[in-house]
Amino acid sequence: MAENDNTVKRYRKQIEDGKQFAISKFAKELLDVRDNLSLALQHVDLEALEENDDIEMVKTQFKSVVNG
Fold first, then answer.
1. Which of 50, 31, 53, 49 is nearest to 63 (CA)?
2. Domain boundaries along the sequence of the chain
């Protein structure tokens, strides 16, 4: 009986550890995405985009950000 209880506890611990690992990995991947978006936004001159009436130029810069 005690052996079964220990086995159940061990499996529950493994499941919990797996969940924590998955959450940690997902959070790290989100931070990587945030960092990349932040870098992309640093290279966009928002004032120039707002002042620019040429829609093709705006599209070109937007495509560059998306591709980057």
1. 49
2. 2-67
Buried b (16+ CB within 10 A) or exposed e, 14-53: eeeeeeeeeeeeeeeeeeeeeeeeeeeeeeeeeeeeeeee
pTM of the prediction?
0.51
Identify each DSSP E strand in 1-68 by its residue range.
none
Q: Enumerate helices (H) and strands (E) in the chain, giving the number of each.
A: 3, 0
pLDDT tens-digit series, residues 47-64: 777 777 777 777 787 787
